[in-house]
Amino acid sequence: MKEIIGISLENEMDLILAHKRTMQVGEQLGLTVATRTTLATAVSEVVRTVIDLTDNGKLSIVISGKIPRFSINANISFESDLTFRETDEGFYYAKRLLPDFHFEVNKNSYKIGMGLGLPRSLKLDEGKIGLLKVYFDTSSPLNAYEEIKNKNSQLNRLTAEQEKEIRIVRELDERKKEFISVASHELKTPITVIKAYTQMLRLLKAEYSDKVGKLVEKLETQTNKLSLLAYQLMDVSKLEHGSLQYDMAKVDLNRFLNETVSMLSNVHSHNKLDLQLGRKCVAMADPLRLEQVFTNLVGNASKYSAKGSVITIATSVSDEEDVVLIKVSDSGIGMSKDGVAKIFDKFYRMEEVASSHPGLGMGLYIASKIVSDHSGKIWVESVQDVGSTFFFTIPLISENLH
Ligand code: ADP
């Protein structure tokens, strides 16, 4: 069965279309004027009845059968809460014109089929039927109404396709979020166990050689990296499902930075960390989350610059004493303008570093959320091959005012 034309039945204009198009199909098939008029009149009778009471009908002119017997059928379907009967006026006349008439009701869905056998003398075959379809698919619209109708249905098709794509993308995104959530939690337990064993190994230092000691050190460094990644993954997952939790406390920033930078100096012993503290100030912040921001910024500064280079961490309190500006500068590889615009995006990594430096592009995304959750701002200034400076602000509490 091949549909040659399909027309949605919405208003009286479609009655004209249905009639003309049915006539044309008959003409293209080579039916006599009398036969095609009978077919088109029967179709019009049913279509008129349907259009009078609903606007959701569909007419489909199809050719079915196989060599040597083919028939042409007009199938009309619609839905209506009103009750229709085979004996209603339009249907009754159509049935008289085309005795091969079917009327089917299923709850409020109606299907009407009518048709006639095509003479063998037309010498139809699959190829000719295919060409007939192409003819109607490519024929120009009968009038402005049909042109608009065609464009409309094209638009509807496109919208439906786009909606489907959006749905698929959303589903994939949900699955990805679910995967990240499960994966990060599944990783946490074995990593914690490995960490515990590594620490136990360190305590047993006296029982093994220096050579083994070096291996244990390496094991610990890599375990810490793995643990950091698992925690970052968990943070990303938390951000995707809501937000991070904070344990806010008054933080004496200079004291906090002295401690944090001293800890980070041990981790990044290949670089020199230069701490330039401004005026003493107090912020309301989650110290662990703040430490996470510094760990990321200083970690990046070290990762993306040469061994032995200096990383500067400087603070300055605003004149109004309501905010502290913190800078983390390096003289490393720097970033392109394009990179600068995107580095705070989730999973973004600059192409230049993708194969040379390990990482997953989560650190700055999380750091930027932590800063904005503290009502601060974060940004970067960078010149390629010269270096980068990350800036962020944290509001201060009035205790600073003296
Ligand atoms: P990761 O470093 O794990 O890839 P981040 O979110 O911390 O993830 O950083 C995102 C990207 O920003 C990095 O991949 C890198 O391209 C760029 N980047 C971050 N900090 C620096 C820096 N100090 N110098 C040069 N590029 C940097």
TrEMBL record:
Histidine kinase domain boundaries: 182-398
This protein's GO CC annotations: plasma membrane
Catalytic activity from the UniProt record: ATP + protein L-histidine = ADP + protein N-phospho-L-histidine
Protein name, entry field: histidine kinase
PROSITE patterns referenced in this protein's UniProt entry, alphabetically: HIS_KIN
Coiled coil: 145-175
EC number(s) given by UniProt: 2.7.13.3
Species of the source: Pedobacter endophyticus
Single annotated GO MF: histidine phosphotransfer kinase activity
Record keywords: Coiled coil, Kinase, Phosphoprotein, Transferase
